[in-house]
UniProtKB/TrEMBL annotation:
UniProt keyword annotations, A-Z: Hydrolase
One Pfam entry name: Hydrolase_2
Alphabetized InterPro entries for the sequence: Cell_wall_hydrolase_SleB (IPR011105), SleB_dom1 (IPR042047)
Source domain of life: Bacteria
Domain Cell wall hydrolase SleB stretches: 20-110
Name of the protein in question: Cell wall hydrolase
Amino acid sequence: MPVSVDTLYTAVTVYKEARGEPRQCQVLVAEVVRNRMDNKGKSAQQIVKERGQFSWMPLIKGQSISSVYNRIQSKAKNGDQEAIATATSIANQVLQPGYDTGNNLYYFHSIKGRRHDVKCGNLYFSYNRH
């Protein structure tokens, strides 16, 4: 079954930003992408590519998202193979039409001490205040 570009962007974001975190925290990362999509009327690709929003984005330097995803899959060992499969499953779930996140989480970071509304694992999430 082909995977959409938006699913690839969301899956790689979950993998790169929350790999090793509990599944619930990985879902919250995907929901941040979804909440921004819904709020801004943009695709996951457009959201993830917004300048300065996701730490992994500058690292791909013009590569296609499918080549980045395929490289992750081919180089993944043991737990990382499971991690990219989990990230893809989460992305598929969260990007389903009609999916309701049930929250308005809009930002996340991993810096202890910065303002946040929700802590999950080692990640800190904040609501959209607009």
